[in-house]
Design goal:
Helix content is 36%, strand content 26%. Helix 3 packs across helix 6 and helix 4 crosses helix 5.
Length: 202
């Protein structure tokens, strides 16, 4: 008899998990379809993206161990998720451990960029990271990213007003074209060179 996989779905913009000690109804999840954004928000309402969880990835693992959660988990696109059992089998735990290791490496890269790169360089890196997510699609032979200035500000550890200026600068220099809620990438090679360069953070 084939076991039916339990799944749950959320619409883009839905908050899936909240910060705090996990309650009895909280679950850990595996992403089957879509993209989940994990964000920490300070007392002034400024957000910082901690991690993007793609299909095959996990989040909410605090529920398995009773640890306090420091982030919001938000559906960046429509998503379909698989809740994990309270007592995962060894194979699933192995997959979860591997994912956590990859997530930790991603977090280290974000910290490194915050410490060593100018905002303009961090923005180029953030745009390229979105290339590998469901937020990217092609229009007229160019890649277009579905992203607001608020979301990009959270991705690079800045505020919307400053990010809007940097987006304008990148557009004037021919790297991108900015539209309402979307960014068209015009010069991928140039963005990669910008993302890989180092400078003092600000």
């Amino acid at each position: 008899m084939t076991q039916v996989r339990e799944t749950v779905s959320f619409k883009a913009g839905d908050v899936i998990l909240y910060p705090g000690v996990p309650g009895p109804r909280d679950r850990a999840y595996r992403v089957l379809e879509g993209l989940v954004r994990l964000e920490a928000v300070d007392e002034e309402g400024n957000a910082l993206t901690l991690r993007l969880v793609r299909p095959g990835g996990f989040f909410g693992e605090e529920a398995l161990f009773g640890q306090e959660r420091i982030y919001f988990a938000e559906a960046a696109t429509d998503v379909r998720l698989e809740p994990l059992p309270e007592n995962p089998d060894p194979e699933l735990l192995k997959d979860l451990a591997q994912h956590l290791s990859q997530g930790l490496a991603e977090a280290y890269r974000r910290i490194e960029r915050l410490a060593t790169q100018r905002l303009k360089n961090r923005m180029a890196a953030a745009l390229l990271e979105l290339l590998e997510t469901p937020l990217a699609h092609e229009e007229e032979g160019k890649v277009v990213l579905k992203a607001t200035h608020d979301e990009l500000a959270a991705a690079v550890g800045s505020v919307r007003e400053t990010v809007t200026k940097v987006i304008g600068e990148l557009a004037r220099e021919g790297y991108i074209r900015s539209g309402y809620g979307k960014i068209q990438l015009l010069d991928l090679k140039g963005l990669k060179e910008l993302a890989e360069s180092r400078g003092q953070g600000r």
